[in-house]
Amino acid sequence: MGFPKDFLWGGATAANQCEGAITEGGRGLANVDVCPAGADRSAVLAGRKKMLAMDDAHTYPAAEAVAMYQHFKEDIRLFAEMGFRVYRLSIAWTRIFPNGDEKEPNEEGLRFYQSVFEECKKYGIQPLVTICHFDCPIGLIKKCGGWKSREMIDHYLRLCRTLFERFRDDVVYWLTFNEINMILHAPFLGAGLVFEEGENEERIKYQAAHYELVASALAVKLAHEINPASKVGCMFAAGSVYPYSCNPQDVWEALKTGQENYFFVDVQARGYYPSYAKKRLQAQGIYPDMEPDDTSILQQYPVDFISFSYYNSRCIASPESKQEEAEGNLFCSVKNPYLKCSDWGWPIDPLGLRITLNEVYDRYQKPLFVVENGLGALDEPDAQGVIEDDYRIAYLREHIRAMKAAVEEDGVDLMGYTSWGCLDLVSASSGEMRKRYGFIYVDKHDDGSGTLARSRKKSFGWYQKVIASNGEDLD
Ligand code: BGP
């Protein structure tokens, strides 16, 4: 009983939030680099404030991040010390294709990831690679408007082919797009979309989403052709949507909000546009333009497994009931009176993870992978300089318990768990350093100061025990 013996325990990062070194190794500029810290960040993420270059008036936390580009050997050694069996990382697209449209890849970028994979191999750690974790080359945004254009499918597939061929023997597990549904909530971050005055934002978002969905299906095809043993997953920002009350109006709104997010996975896992999406998008006049082959592409190449991030559940009320809004991973949701919140106002709901696992498994009947989960918190070193992050341990313990119950008692087929930000890194939504998730503290601060030294938090030893006991010892 308990977790399967080969359960993939580990941690997750994204290139733009940890690597830094954005001008090293021939790397080009990407959307994720030009998202500033501070007040303008949310308008930039939403595509409402155009920022395609850095200026002197802002600071850009991705530029140095936590310098994993230089520290990766030390970091992977620490992951190995915790007993990681898997490390989820992403590829910075512009390290491989600096402008996005080159015919040949940048060898230096490929060599960097080659070294990362070699380091993982040394410790028996499986890489789980997100091909695109919010990156879009600025070159392509300028050239064709990012995912506004169908041309992106070819650029993305060239990146995929390069990676699948080069790392054929190094990587089994691939994810096509991180949190693909984020395109609806942070379209510049999710797809390099910037809106001009008078444009129909919803139409553009769904058209771009369609191109990503076709690109994702073709990536599955390509991965299997190049290495039939490879396993390709989709990835979405999950979290079951609860109705605020049993008022059928609330229940109906919650169901619709859930469908908005499941739409992407419905296509990637089942292979066709679900009927609710067809009807609603048509009714709003925003059903995407499609090429004749798209339907069969989506149908023929569904994903092998489904992965998701889970930070919290969401709670939805009908517009008439005017409930107070809660924070939470760029999604609008009302405050759930039964739940406590993190320092950043994100609800904490471990049972929600069990509910989500059941809901997703019931819906798709494919293996699942929790590839992000964790607590963003303020960590203050004590007099000895140690971070006693018992709050993080408590959060993770309860979520792992919930996951265990889903596996053991509900029969959910779960491949693994990679907690988010296994070493401290830049926050995607806020651009802050002080919102920390790691087992490993990085001495880096919001004002850019810090030695970048790594140290173990209390949760480091705790997670090490969890992995060593395959999730049995959670105390
Ligand atoms: C997800 C992203 C991650 C990560 C995480 C935590 O949306 O996939 O990149 O950052 O959320 O969010 P935040 O960094 O905003 O606290």
Walk me through the structure.
With 475 residues, the chain is of the alpha/beta class. The protein has helices at 15-18, 41-45, 68-82, 93-96, 107-122, 138-144, 151-166, 187-191, 201-226, 248-270, 275-283, 294-300, 350-364, 390-408, 458-468; strands spanning 8-12, 86-90, 126-132, 173-177, 231-237, 241-243, 305-309, 314-316, 325-326, 333-334, 368-372, 414-420, 440-442, 454-456. An 8-stranded parallel beta barrel has the order 1-2-3-4-5-7-11-12, surrounded by 5 helices. A two-stranded parallel sheet has the order 6-8. Strands 9-10 form a two-stranded antiparallel ribbon. Strand 11, helix 14 and strand 12 form a beta-alpha-beta unit. Helix 3 runs parallel beside helix 5, helix 9 crosses helix 12 (294-300) and helix 13 (350-364) runs parallel beside helix 14. The two termini are 18 Å apart. The relative contact order is 0.14. Bound molecules: 6-O-phosphono-beta-D-galactopyranose (BGP).
DSSP helix fraction: 25-40%
Radius of gyration: 21 Å
| Uncertain segments | none
Which whole number gives the mean pLDDT? Answer: 96
Strand count, sense and barrel status of the largest sheet are: 8 strands, parallel, barrel
Ends apart, CA distance between termini: 18 Å
Bound molecules: 6-O-phosphono-beta-D-galactopyranose
Structural shape: globular
- Strands of the largest sheet, in order across it? 1-2-3-4-5-7-11-12
Number of strands: 14
- Order of SSEs: EHHHEHHEHHEHHEEHHHEEEEHEHEEEH
Question: What is the count of helical runs?
Answer: 15
As a percent range, the share of strand residues is 5-15%
Structural class: alpha/beta
